[in-house]
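Dear colleagues,

As part of the handover before I leave the project, I'm documenting each prediction I ran so the next person doesn't have to rerun anything. This entry is a single chain, and its sequence is reproduced below.
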Amino acid sequence: MLPAPELKARIATRNHGRGYFLPSLIWVFYS
């Protein structure tokens, strides 16, 4: 099973696409 930050990053990137890559990283770190 993936670590939580990695899993969140993959889900966020998959859901929002490359245009939201940086906001996804911010969300991962601050959620």
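The chain has one domain: 1-31. The mean pLDDT is 66.

All the best with the project,
I.
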